[in-house]
């Protein structure tokens, strides 16, 4: 920022294992979103290296990064970013129409439990349902990686539990490597692995011996 240099991340060294469900925990400003955006090819690091399998993402051009995101990454954000004038099915079809080996919008919406809401517009859906449409849209192209930035940040605890349950099921049924950002410690218990960030650095990285079913989480 002008003359002031801000180090959003410092010395982060991290490897995500295929198929794991990771929760990234940290206080506001700890660098979670910056890390997720770099991992997803939305941002590029000012220094350091980042690989997706053998592909050096830090060396790709913007259009190559766009292709990487389109082919491999699904994103879910705190605010659902659905297109208001399109139904749930049409929102998902926006992605399936350009993906190379997608599932049908109907299958994606069935996986998130919204079979009977397919023809509803976002304004006719609850917050939790809108987030589940956003998850259906993110997984419909069968991405290898699903990145979720505070997916339950705008939801109450029981609705949030349902949304996290969907993420846990998708991870186990489709084997999608999943990273979920939160500042909520309780959500850590649903993960295979919990990584804590503080002031731009990883302060701990541990595996849960047992995963809690997300639908049972309350906060
Ligand atoms: N575009 C930017 N310009 C300057 N500083 C930034 C920018 N984006 C983030 N930062 C700073 O980098 C640090 C990390 O921000 P980041 O958004 O990654 O944190 P976070 O852990 O996701 O926070 P939150 O939970 O509040 O979203 C913060 O100190 C933030 O102020």
Summarize the structure.
By secondary structure, the protein is α/β, with parallel strands linked by helices. It has helices at residues 32-39, 62-72, 88-96, 105-111, 127-139, 157-174, and strands at 21-26, 51-52, 55-56, 73-76, 145-149, 177-182, 193-198, 201-207. The strands form two sheets. A six-stranded mixed β-sheet has the order 4-5-6-1-7-8, sandwiched between helices. A two-stranded antiparallel sheet has the order 2-3.
**Span of the ends, CA to CA:** 36 Å
**Ligand identities:** adenosine-5'-triphosphate
CATH class of the domain at 21-81 and 144-216: Alpha Beta
The name of the CATH superfamily of the domain at 21-81 and 144-216 reads P-loop containing nucleotide triphosphate hydrolases
Question: From N to C, what is the helix and strand string?
Answer: EHEEHEHHHEHEEE
| H/I helix tally | 6
Sheet with most strands: strand arrangement: 4-5-6-1-7-8
What does it look like?
- This protein is an alpha/beta fold and 219 residues long.
- It has a domain of 134 residues: P-loop containing nucleotide triphosphate hydrolases (Rossmann fold), CATH 3.40.50.300.
- It is built from six helices and eight strands; from the N terminus they run E-H-E-E-H-E-H-H-H-E-H-E-E-E.
- It has a six-stranded mixed sheet, sandwiched between helices. Strands 2-3 form a two-stranded antiparallel ribbon.
- The model has no long low-confidence stretch (mean pLDDT 95).
- Adenosine-5'-triphosphate binds next to helix 1.
- GO terms for molecular function: ATP binding; ATP hydrolysis activity; transmembrane transporter activity.
């Amino acid at each position: 920022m002008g003359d002031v240099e801000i180090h959003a991340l410092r010395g982060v060294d991290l490897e995500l294992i295929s198929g794991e469900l990771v929760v990234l925990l940290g206080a506001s400003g700890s660098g979670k979103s910056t890390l997720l955006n770099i991992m997803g090819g939305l941002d590029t690091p000012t220094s350091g290296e980042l690989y997706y399998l053998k592909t050096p993402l830090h060396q790709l051009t913007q259009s190559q990064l766009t292709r990487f995101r389109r082919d491999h990454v699904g994103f879910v954000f705190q605010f659902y970013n659905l297109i208001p004038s399109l139904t749930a099915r049409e929102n998902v079809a926006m992605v399936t129409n350009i993906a190379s080996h997608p599932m049908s919008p109907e299958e994606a919406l069935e996986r998130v439990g919204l079979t009977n809401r397919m023809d509803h517009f976002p304004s006719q859906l609850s917050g939790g349902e809108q987030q589940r449409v956003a998850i259906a849209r993110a997984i419909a192209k069968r991405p290898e990686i699903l990145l979720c930035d505070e997916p339950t940040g705008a939801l109450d605890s029981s609705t949030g539990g349902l949304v996290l349950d969907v993420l846990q099921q998708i991870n186990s049924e489709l084997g999608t490597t999943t990273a979920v950002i939160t500042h909520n410690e309780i959500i850590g218990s649903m993960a295979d692995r919990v990584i804590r960030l503080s002031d731009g650095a990883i302060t701990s990285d541990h595996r849960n011996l047992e995963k809690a079913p997300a639908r049972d989480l309350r906060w």
